[in-house]
Amino acid sequence: MLSIGEFSKICKVTTRTLRHYDDIDLIKPAEINSENSYRFYSIGQIRTMLLISRLKNYSFSLDEIKTILNTHDNKLLIEKIKDKKNHIEITIKRYKYIEHEMENDLLNLKNGVDIMSFIEDINVSLIETQDINILSNRQIMGVNEYGKYIGNLFEEVSKKNLTVLGCPMSIYHDNEFNHNHNDTEVALPIKEKINNTRVLKGNLCAMVTFEGPYSNLSCAYGKITEWINLNNYRIIDLPYEKYIKGPMDGKIITEIYFPVEII
């Protein structure tokens, strides 16, 4: 048997963390001395602790790790690791894009060019949209959860054998932005009209097609807002986005729509 200190040194994890893992039933001591409450771990628990540390390094939450340890399901572990790998690939692409932007900004600054001048290259169009029948799910959600809820819609489409007619969308119902807490409606345009579908009304819209990471969409929003003000229009309904291409498509393309009317 190994004392908690010995186990801590071998597995490179603090005793405080081991006590926390014991409290949440992630990995419990093999034995606790009834007289002094000292914790002892078995040699066989070393691999379990090393697996926990490995999965933490892959950005698994402690709840996710607990589920993996409790189920002993290799297929589940494969799927979970695939999901984390995809997330890391997306993150790497995002940082590569940021690195590219920084290189361009440094070059522009050296040449005396305003690093925000690219906004002038964002083109705003005025278009008439048509009524769209959408399958939607309105939730309070964080920005990073959009993909999950859109995925749920695709699952429903598959189960009910529905016909998708366009790209995924997000419609924003909040009056302000909160990265972790937005009143957002994710949607898919579909052919069939069922219980949880509704019609997104067509309108005259100021629209931008933006190529780049979602973190830069605020630049497109700023350009649309400026354009609406300069051209004597006003916003009459909720803005929404269409995701034409996503991170796994090699490039990210988003269409942004603001329903407007002339003043």
TrEMBL record:
<dbReference type="InterPro" id="IPR009061">
    <property type="entry name" value="DNA-bd_dom_put_sf"/>
</dbReference>
<dbReference type="InterPro" id="IPR011256">
    <property type="entry name" value="Reg_factor_effector_dom_sf"/>
</dbReference>
<dbReference type="InterPro" id="IPR047057">
    <property type="entry name" value="MerR_fam"/>
</dbReference>
<dbReference type="InterPro" id="IPR029442">
    <property type="entry name" value="GyrI-like"/>
</dbReference>
<keyword id="KW-0238">DNA-binding</keyword>
<dbReference type="InterPro" id="IPR000551">
    <property type="entry name" value="MerR-type_HTH_dom"/>
</dbReference>
<protein>
    <submittedName>
        <fullName>MerR family transcriptional regulator</fullName>
    </submittedName>
</protein>
<dbReference type="InterPro" id="IPR010499">
    <property type="entry name" value="AraC_E-bd"/>
</dbReference>
<dbReference type="Pfam" id="PF13411">
    <property type="entry name" value="MerR_1"/>
</dbReference>
<dbReference type="Pfam" id="PF06445">
    <property type="entry name" value="GyrI-like"/>
</dbReference>
<feature type="domain" description="HTH merR-type">
    <location>
        <begin position="1"/>
        <end position="71"/>
    </location>
</feature>
